[in-house]
Design a protein that fits this description.
4-stranded mixed β-sheet, alpha/beta, about 425 residues, 15 strands, single chain
């Protein structure tokens, strides 16, 4: 009989990437651990790409899913849906956006796609500003605004996209500046760019770039951008697909590190809110959300089962202060990793906040990316019982560490020890 890997290759696209030279099948999980088909246990520091936000097999979520599935699984947005209304109420209140409306989708890609539809309709413009090194999804429109060549297979797009400096603090022409001068230079770049364009619909930006390798600007950059955008009537969309729900520890939303000029006009979310169930969405001011003048529904967005999961998961997150846990345990973990990295020549930078940590690898003594080193660390960590991710511009040379937010101090130390061994093996 063919292996599962052989069967995968026979029927699925070549471009559907798999981690590891010998890919693993994950069969079940509990807490912060998962098991593969051979019975090996792994500490999960990637959470299905930042999606298992609270814990694997969280009883509160699995019970909510089972109970709702036993009543009704699907109805669509053409009917009143109590779990959808209740989750929308909670998210609207938490969003920080005044007079907020919420539209649910099935993924972050679809959420960003919806935000682009709203922005271009509201502003009557197809021009979008995005950040260099960004990632916003795999649909035709979101690929067109993604500023990372590794994830943008076509230059065709329904939008005209212009890319702004600022998403990456440690590379590029402003890398050597102080934080204050960095922000000033990026704002000047934005001002200059707007002087060359017609009316722009929106700026879309991840407060911390996810696929880009957990890079971020100094706090306050997007507030400074917001003041410029407001003068031109341009909307600000915060892509919170990876930064939302307290993962950064210091803030519930990533935009709050840049909130001096107020909240964004729209924020998009997905991943962690469903703890593995397919939930995405957009929060926007009512006048923006209601600007569409044609019919629109969602067949699967707002499904009763996924909404029940989201409600249970959000309730658990808030009741157990997992944002505070991300701040405390994440702070310990990043300091531990920085101490490890100090003795590894291939580590250029350890960055991040809360339980969203990136380790950038380069050829020792240079700024040249080291994708082979990143792949080697990924393999070594797996062999020793730890799952991590990778990403980044410059040939995907950053390791991505994003455990469930319920991570304990002992588990953080366990993962750090495995990472230390993997890094030192370079």
């Amino acid at each position: 009989m063919s292996s599962l890997h052989d069967r995968h290759r026979a029927v699925l696209p070549d471009w559907l990437a798999l981690y590891y030279k010998d890919p693993i099948e994950i069969t079940h999980g509990e807490g912060r651990y998962v098991w593969d088909a051979d019975g090996r246990r792994y500490l999960d520091f990637f959470g299905g790409i930042l999606t298992t936000m609270t814990a694997h097999a969280l009883p509160e979520v699995t019970k909510a899913v089972a109970d709702q599935a036993g009543r009704i699984i699907h109805s669509s947005t053409l009917y009143l849906n109590r779990p959808m209304v209740e989750l929308a109420e909670r998210i609207a209140a938490l969003s920080g956006i005044p007079d907020a409306r919420v539209f649910f989708t099935t993924s972050g890609t679809e959420a960003n796609d919806t935000a682009l539809l709203l922005a271009t309709t509201y502003r009557r413009s197809s021009q979008i500003l995005a950040m260099r090194n960004s990632y916003h999804g795999r649909s035709f429109s979101t690929v067109g605004i993604t500023g990372n060549r590794s994830w943008s297979p076509t230059g065709l797009s329904p939008l005209q996209t212009l890319y702004v400096h600022g998403g990456v603090r440690g590379r590029g022409p402003f890398a050597g500046y102080t934080d204050e001068r960095f922000v000033d230079a990026c704002v000047a770049d934005l001002e200059d760019l707007l002087g060359h364009t017609h009316d722009v619909a929106a700026l879309i930006a991840e407060p911390i770039q996810g696929v880009g390798g957990f890079t971020s600007p100094p706090d306050g950059l997007y507030a400074a951008f917001r003041r410029v955008l407001d003068r031109h009537g341009i909307l600000w969309i915060a892509d919170e697909v990876q930064t939302g729900w307290g993962r950064t520890g210091e803030h519930f939303w990533g935009w709050q590190a840049h909130g001096q000029a107020g909240p964004p006009d729209m924020l998009t979310f997905a991943k962690g809110i469903g703890n593995g169930m397919s939930i995405g969405g957009v929060v926007a001011r009512a006048e923006i959300m209601n600007c569409l003048d044609a019919n629109s529904i969602s067949t699967f967005g707002g499904s009763p089962v996924t909404m029940a999961a989201g409600l249970a998961n959000l309730g658990y997150l808030l009741e157990h202060d997992l944002q505070g846990n991300a701040r405390r345990v994440g702070g310990l973990l990043i300091e531990r990793l920085r101490a490890v990295a100090a003795g590894v020549d291939a580590v250029r930078e350890v960055r991040g906040r809360g339980l969203m940590i990136g380790i950038e690898l380069t050829e020792p003594g240079t700024d040249r990316a080291a994708p082979e080193a990143a792949a080697a660390v990924l393999e070594s960590a797996r062999e020793n019982g730890l799952l991590i991710g990778k990403g980044g511009g410059h040939d995907t040379s950053a390791l991505r560490i994003a455990p469930p937010l319920s991570l304990t101090v002992a588990e953080a130390e366990e993962g750090a020890a495995i990472l230390e061994q993997a890094l030192r093996s370079l």
